[in-house]
Specification:
Distance between the termini: 90 Å
Structural class: mainly alpha
Number of helices: 5
Helix content: 55-70%
Radius of gyration: 28 Å
Shape: elongated
Oligomer: single chain
Number of strands: 2
Largest sheet: 2 strands, antiparallel
């Protein structure tokens, strides 16, 4: 066994090349005392779980609209689905519904399990923003589709 004494921040390490490892003395970082959160910050943190649950409800609603608009657009024709997995299932809407619902259930379960974490809340806000933008794009799509019908068939 080969050992060498190395000095690192006032400690000694023993390094070995054999089957029996030598002991290593590695410096440990000291714990830092963080200031206590203000009452307002504490209240904001305590309510995070409630906000995440409300955001999950909003995500379910937005996903429902997205699913309904996707299926309607596919039935109207001239629609290209952006999701490659859902694209293969669009010929059978029941499969799309099962895929979409199971995906949202799975993601919601993870978010709900860790609902008291700030990263989960930020993720829920981000997803709500994404689905709100998708909803706006659906509005533009159907507005354009209506204009297309007026020009093509003289409806109006």
């Amino acid at each position: 066994m080969q050992e060498s004494g190395l000095s690192r921040a006032g400690t000694t390490e023993q390094v070995s090349d054999g089957p029996r490892a030598g002991s290593r003395a590695i410096p440990v970082a000291r714990e830092v005392d963080l200031p206590a959160p203000s009452p307002r910050q504490a209240r904001w943190s305590r309510r995070r779980g409630q906000r995440v649950v409300l955001l999950l409800i909003l995500l379910w609603i937005l996903n429902g609209f997205d699913l309904a608009f996707t299926i309607m657009a596919h039935r109207l024709g001239d629609f290209n689905e952006g999701n490659p997995i859902a694209r293969t299932m669009l010929h059978q809407p029941v499969r799309v519904v099962i895929f979409k619902v199971s995906s949202v259930v799975f993601a919601s379960g993870i978010f709900f399990l860790f609902r008291d974490r700030g990263l989960v809340e930020a993720g829920c806000w981000g997803l709500c923003l994404v689905y709100a933008v998708i909803g706006f794009l659906w509005l533009l799509y159907y507005d354009g589709y209506e204009a297309h019908l007026h020009l093509r068939w003289g409806l109006g």
